[in-house]
Specification:
Blueprint: H1 2-23, H2 28-34, E1 37-39, E2 46-48, E3 51-53, H3 57-67, E4 73-75, H4 86-92, E5 97-102, H5 108-120, E6 125-132, H6 134-137, H7 142-155, E7 160-164, H8 167-170, H9 176-180, H10 202-219, E8 224-226, H11 242-255, E9 262-264, E10 266-267, H12 275-282, H13 305-315
Parallel strand pairs: 1-4, 1-10, 4-5, 5-6, 6-7, 8-9
Antiparallel strand pairs: 2-3
């Protein structure tokens, strides 16, 4: 009898420890169904002549105050160059959840910062995303991401871990095992880069994004957040306008229903005039002028028509 009681107490203790460990971690199902995500790079951050100009605490605070009325959750791209301040500011402003990004899976600074931030803000940090399109660009290998995943998982067993790549990599058989090892799918699904796409065709563009998301979840039965999609608001010479951007997001929000297994993050918070030069370094062969215009807000913090469009759609739900 005494042995049975000991076993029972051991089981109960084990369950309590597990529950306690997960108590501070945001619930993935609830976050996906209710959170309003925005993919965010601070306006005070830039890359000039190949050198990162760190984001400032003041700039991040100003940005997140501007975003907060319409968005309650963030996806970041780095844990360095000032972006490590984002969770603390977001917590003060009562954001719901953050997916913290690591830009370079081999960066010791970013890895340590991500672990530290997840421990410091357990009720806020939903997941950690290790890398963004670096496998596709050839800047690191799947093995580099896997190594960092294993390291962080030892320290943070209850935090979801992922990476982000263009959607077509998820559909290549040689990557099936790699993506299956992750807890969450964070694909970038851009109809803008498809040869058939017309910026004025919002309905087909939105349908493409959601059809790809369906296909990915049939291949990988995991929660999915579309980390990047959308339409730039310029340049007009390439057929991109604020009206087309607004129409695209109105359509994708109309076609997207609240779900415990899927969400779409708005991409992205602010225009970034420095991005075309950096993107050309990643993907030679084009000037990538549209990369400066993805923002829902201008670099001066002025909202574009797309902001009013999503307010209207959300107000009807």
């Amino acid at each position: 009898m005494k042995t049975s009681r000991c076993v029972l107490w051991a089981m109960l203790l084990s369950l309590w420890v597990m529950a306690t460990a997960d108590a501070g971690t945001p619930n993935m199902d609830t976050a996906l169904k209710n959170a309003r995500f925005m993919s965010y790079t601070p306006r005070s951050f830039s890359v000039v002549n190949g050198l990162a100009q760190p984001a400032s605490l003041e700039g991040i605070t100003e940005d997140l105050r501007l975003l907060r009325p319409d968005f309650d959750s963030l996806i970041t791209y780095s844990c360095g160059n000032g972006l490590e301040h984002v969770p603390a500011v977001a917590e003060k402003l009562k954001y719901r959840a953050i997916i913290v990004g690591i830009w370079d899976p081999k960066s010791e600074i970013e890895i340590q910062n991500a672990i530290r931030l997840a421990k410091k803000h357990p009720k806020l940090i939903l997941a950690i995303s290790i890398g963004n399109e670096g496998i596709y660009a050839g800047h690191y290998a799947p093995a580099d991401v896997e190594k960092t995943v294993l390291r962080i998982r030892k320290e943070l067993p209850s935090v979801s871990l992922s990476t982000s790549e263009p959607f077509f990599l998820y559909l290549k058989p040689e990557y099936f095992d790699f993506f299956n090892k992750l807890d969450l799918l964070l694909p970038n699904i851009h109809p803008t880069f498809e040869k058939w796409f017309n910026p004025s065709d919002a309905k087909n563009g939105a349908a493409f994004v959601l059809n790809v998301a369906n296909k990915l979840q049939s291949q990988y039965p995991k929660p999915l957040i579309v980390k990047e999609t959308g339409l730039p608001s310029g340049p007009a010479s390439m057929g991109f306008t604020e009206a087309h951007q607004s129409a695209f997001w109105s359509e994708i929000l109309k076609q997207s229903l609240a779900s415990e297994t899927r969400a779409v993050s708005c991409f992205e918070a602010f225009d970034a005039p420095w991005k075309p030069v950096v993107t050309k370094g990643y993907f030679p062969g084009s000037d990538h002028l549209q990369e400066a215009y993805w923002g829902f807000f201008t670099v001066d913090g002025k909202s574009k028509p797309v902001v009013n469009a999503i307010r209207s759609i959300r107000g009807k739900r």
